[in-house]
Amino acid sequence: MNVFHLSAECYPVAKAGGLGDVVGALPKYLCRSGAKASVVLPYYDRKFVRENTFEKVFEGSGKLGHRRFDFYVLREETNKLGFELYLINIPGLLDRQEIYGYPDETEQFVSFQLAFLEWMVQSGEEPDIIHCHDHHTGLIPFLVSNSYRYNSLKGIPTVCTIHNGEYQGWFGWDKISYLPEIDLSRSGLLDWGGCINSLAAAVKCCWNFTTVSPSYLEELSYRSNGLENLFRMERQKGTGIINGIDTEVWDPQKDPFITAHYNADTVTEGKQANKKALCKEFKLKLKNPLIVFIGRLVGEKGADLLPAIVDRVCSVYKDRVNFLILGSGEPEIELELSALQVKHQGQFGLFIGYDEALAHRIYAGADFIIMPSRVEPCGLNQLYSLRYGTMPVVNSTGGLKDTVVDILTDEGYGIRFNQAATVDAVEALGRAIALFSETKRMKELQKRMMSLDFSWDRSAAEYLDLYNSLTKR
Ligand code: ADP
Q1: Contact 390, 367 (CB under 8 A)
Q2: pLDDT tens, 281-328?
């Protein structure tokens, strides 16, 4: 089984969120199960690329409308990530430092997809499966089945995984000329709501789409930023497969970023040492419970609720609780949180920005992580937290619903609430703060959390089953 994964992100080359984590781990576990899984990314001018050696394996050319471009494909020489990593470079279009945020994002990702297909056609390479991730690679299933130019790839099954259905890769029909000659009678497959919608095209044209949790698959039919009817109609083509975590990267016994290593037996002392360092760094009080948030400061994550949640919790539990937030996003939220840092000095720490090492230190040192998400396709933060013995306090949505069991049940190990609203989150955090004083129970629950298995082995096997069912068709 030879699978090519196409994505905008892949840890540790380029990561902005969960997509990067998944594409950096799933292929590794697929390879361990006997498949050959490779990752194809746009070239980025970033640390990993500068510090590793690559060989040029292909040179070709393509066309983005009237604009002719030359491209080349690099392969990381050592396979140190556990899979073959390819980077496609189109000087001037793909050799960027950031992953997202450029005004010509359409040109960036359309040219990436075209260069990949040109590479396949011009080199005669024929994978068994092409696996696309999110809208950045969503045109590929359409192009493979409807563009004359890529006829030779037509029989290759395409899979599309939806990590986040909120972003869909929209662009106007005025840019249809970017695509090579297509069967015009099929051009409607590109359309949703009067514009070209890359994610909608992927769902319509791929052989099978997957979502990163079963609950998210159900939710897309009634909440998917305009694609609800599409998901309802294509439901039979969808499979929900919960994400795993890379237990080698996220391992409190070996994690190079954290202050003290620990396992389920040494969780109390281990977490205490990590918490001590973190409290010192952010001038917080070691004796109080430490509640944290890590993530993008956007509405999807319920981050607009954070200022009110922090203010309320820090006021009601004055000098009895610590809050720490790591994230960046909407400027208003950043500003409101910054103001609270002054008001709740000594109780509330804040780091605006993206910092991978700090995220690890926080998972290791925190007691609770709050996730008031409105939309959470899978959510990885709660899985990393569980692995580090940090209790998730989550809104019951998407993957959070599938992975967190409330401590009100016998087998529980987390705290859930039923609405992305300040009052619900504050009430749930009240339960967390009360639990913190029950030292013995807290310790038992930490052990339970750390013994859970969210590794990729099971989920990778589900992807393999899916690939096998498609290649047999
Ligand atoms: P998303 O919707 O953002 O992809 P996920 O829960 O699937 O959310 O994945 C988030 C990933 O990004 C986790 O690995 C988390 O630790 C990381 N992350 C998010 N924000 C930051 C940040 N500001 N600094 C470091 N890591 C971050």
Answers
A1: yes
A2: 999 999 999 999 999 999 999 999 999 999 999 999 999 999 999 999
What is the atom index within ligand 1 of the atom nearest the CA of 379? 6
Nearest CA to ligand 1 atom 3: 17
User: Which residue CA neighbors atom 12 of ligand 1 most closely?
Assistant: 17
Band the pLDDT of 333: cuts 50, 70, 90: very high
Burial (CB count within 10 angstroms: exposed 0-12, middle 13-18, buried 19+), residue 180: middle
What is the pTM for the complete model shown? 0.94
What's the 379 CA to ligand 1 centre distance in angstroms? 9
Q: Tell whether the model's pLDDT for residue 18 goes beyond 90.
A: yes
Q: Would you say the CB of residue 63 lies under 6 angstroms from ligand 1? A: no
Question: Is there an atom of ligand 1 within 6 Å of 380 CB?
Answer: yes
Domains, the chain, ordered by start:
2-244+457-471 (3.40.50.2000), 267-453 (3.40.50.2000)
Q: DSSP character for 96? A: B
d(CA 399, CA 217): 10
pLDDT band at 473; cut points 50, 70, 90: confident
Of all protein residues, whose CA lies closest to atom 5 belonging to ligand 1?
18
Pocket residue to mutate for ligand 1, from 135, 164, 249, 354, most atoms within 8 A of Cβ:
354
**105 in ligand 1 pocket by Cβ < 6 Å?**
no
Ligand 1 lined by 356 (C-beta under 6 Å): yes
Average pLDDT over residues 266-290: 98
Reported as a single tens digit per residue, the pLDDT across 66-104 is 999 999 999 999 999 999 999 999 999 999 999 999 999
Residues with Cβ within 8 Å of 51's Cβ and at least 6 positions away in sequence, in order, are none
The pairing of beta strand 322-329 with beta strand 2-6:
unpaired
Measured in Å, how far apart are the chain's first and last C-alpha atoms? Answer: 14
